[in-house]
Amino acid sequence: MFENIYPQLIGLCAGALLLTSALMVWRHSLLASIRLLALQGIALAALVAVIGIAEGEPELVLVSLLILSVKGIGLPWVLAYQSKASIKQIQESPRLNPTAALLTVTLLTILSYIVVSRVFGLGDSSTGHAAPIGLAMVLIGFLLLISRRRARSQLIGFLLLDNGIATITFLTSGGVPILLEFAFSLDVLLVVLILHVFASRMRTKFGGTAVDQLRELHD
Amino acid sequence: MISFILWIPLVGPLALAGFSLLPGTFALRRFVGVAASSAVLIAGLLLVSAVLNGAVPETGGGMLRADALSAYMISVVGAVGLIATWGGLSSAASSRTKVAASYEALIALFLAAMSLAVLADSIGLMWAAVEATTIATAFLVGHHRTGRSLEAAWKYVILGSVGVAIALLGIGFIYAASVGTDTPTLSWLLLSQSNLGLDPALITAGGALAVLGFATKAGLAPMHSWLPDAHSQAPAPVSGLMSGVLLSVALYAILRIQSITNLVIGPEFLRIMLSVGGLLSLLVAASLLIRQRDYKRMLAYSSIEHMGLMAIGVAIGPAALPSVLLYILGHGLIKATLFVISGRILQVEGTPVISDVRALLVRRPGLAIPWLIAMAAIVGFPPFSIFFSEIGIIMAGWSVGLGGVVAAALVLLLVIFAAFTRLTVQMTIGAPPDGVAFTPDYSAHGPRLPIILALATTATVAFVAEPVGTLLLQATAVLGGTN
After folding, report:
1. Which of B151, B172, B176 lies closest to A165 in CB terms?
2. Mutation target among B168, B292, B297, B298 for the A interface, most CBs of A within 10 A
3. How distant is the Cα of A18 from the closest Cα of chain B, in angstroms?
């Protein structure tokens, strides 16, 4: 029974990951992006749980709970930690217009399919077929990092990149040992907290969090 | 018994960090950084002596391990840390604040993270430790809380963690390659055994991404743009630590990755990548040093230059590795010294602009003389060990057929040498403006002994064949080279 729906479940989770990434590029509201990030964290946790059940590894189910708590709940909560009223008004004015951005997302996705199939071969496992999704997420994360102006939108780009890396790792190798997974999650959590503190210092110092203001240091 | 020493550089600084945060410890608080560095240095020297006696201490179920290379690196971390923290010792009055407590605690955490990075026998743990160095230094770079330091810290954390995230992707691929074999592992000891049968495509992609990621942290061009900002805005001892050892710890990570890829796909692939990165770094440093206006940024670009040359040395391979390792020590000590002195100059002169600091030799000989000696060492005058390292790398480059690369490097080094000489002369030599009364200031504005120790060590270390030379050869042998 499970063998039959296993490829479908992998496909469903990978599809959810790609869809949330594309929507993050499309939506300009910060709150919407944070909610999408939470959804993506849940999809990633589900993906890990499915792989864990299929391979009969209870450790992976534990990892999926860790991911759910950090990426699905913890990080979005840290990012949204601000009064609801003010966060709703924050709109991003990216350097790319939505159409161009979505077109770029499509091109990046095609590119990652080409790269993965050329370099590694897609193999015949259902996880191998989903692996390009992870690379596409990494590339879309880079797109967000370079096209967004606000500090916290860049932070979301960084987290998308990180989710993409986690997706690739789980799809290609079934995840790293749990102790390391724990260290990775802690590191990412701390980096996000630090950047969050810097973003609020920026707000008090410059009266806004547009990263464009940061051009005092140059040669 | 010996394996117990492995815990000292991790637990010691952590305990000291906790001590610094205790209320009511401000009389001793300012010595936390010095004590933490001393703990690391002593542990490093003990490990070196163990390694020279043929032991390879390991503990924590094989997670921590000190072969010759790790023992050498941990000693370098301790030595450079000692120079930077001792030279930049804060005054008793300023160490009473809460900010001072967290500053000292973060320095100790930073030292513990670097120690973990060089002692870990798992690429994954090494990665986590390198990322932890970014976390520990983020607030240290933004310590002054000005708009500029905030900008530097933001760029540093974003670029640093994105770079290291790319390295994580690479490590994921390397792990995926090992999953295809009998023993899935991230231990570099196991991965660098020749008969594992790792998938070459995955190792190529993984090695390239991991090296690219750690190169960002090592400040190699074209991923260097965070470095001048962070190093010029951080407090002087932090700049000294970051420039002197953090960059080298990232280079150490590259060395470990290289020892894995060399076995599977041969040295050619990374050789091209590292040569290009190294030459680009030299080019960036040369072009931006010519017109440099800020002396702390000048030191930062000098770090890019030296990391570039070290990367070329790594590209050359085993023939150049002893020189590269000696280079790491010499550059670390001298750069820490220079940053410490630059902090003192900034404090008494009140400006980081080169053209505003004039005739330092006449007005403040107490600062200008050590500055001039250290500058001579950093541009590569003998008897300082940087000279011998540079010669060693260039000779090794000729011998393995990378003559074109080292010739280009030599031309760029010449340009950098000229730029440095001009800027240093501008700062130190000359007469003060007419009609301004002054009395020569012979004060060193801080402890003299660490500066003297650093300069003396760098001037003599290249002549000590036993045990330094033996240790360097052993460390090279660890990386799969027999020289």
Report:
1. B172
2. B168
3. 18
Q: Measured between CA atoms, how close is A209 to chain B, in angstroms? A: 11
Interface confidence, given as ipTM, is 0.91
- Chain B partners within 8 Å of A160 (Cβ): none
Which pLDDT score is estimated for A211? 74
What is the distance between the alpha carbons of residues B306 and B218, in angstroms, rounded to a whole number? 11
**A195–B154 C-beta distance less than 8 A:** yes
Query: Residues 6 or more apart from B24 whose CB is under 8 A from it?
Result: none
- Interface contact A23, partner B, CB < 8 A: no
Instruction: Output the pLDDT for position A7.
Output: 86
Please state the φ and ψ torsions of residue B120, each to the nearest 5 degrees.
Answer: -70, 135
pLDDT tens profile B205-261: 999 999 999 999 999 989 999 999 999 999 999 999 999 999 999 999 999 999 999
**Is the distance from CB of A61 to CB of A175 less than 8 angstroms?**
no
Residues A178, B407: Cα–Cα separation, whole Å: 48
- Is the torsion defined by CA of B424, B429, B434, B435 positive or negative? positive
- Count of A-B CB contacts under 8 Å: 110
Cα B174 to Cα B257: distance, rounded to the nearest angstrom: 10
Quick check: B480 and B192 in contact, CB under 8 A?
yes
- pTM, two decimals, is 0.94
Domain edges within chain A: 2-213
pLDDT tens-place string over residues B329-351: 999 999 999 999 999 999 999 99
Burial of B101 (0-12, 13-18, 19+ CB in 10 A): buried
Q: Distance (Å, rounded) from C-alpha A123 to C-alpha A118? A: 11
- For A40, the 3-state DSSP assignment is helix
Token pair of A132 as six digits: 């390009």
Three-class SS of residue A198?
Answer: helix
Rounded CA separation B191/B197 (Å): 10
- Checking if the pLDDT of B481 tops 60, the result is no
In whole angstroms, what is the distance from residue B241 CA to residue B227 CA? 13
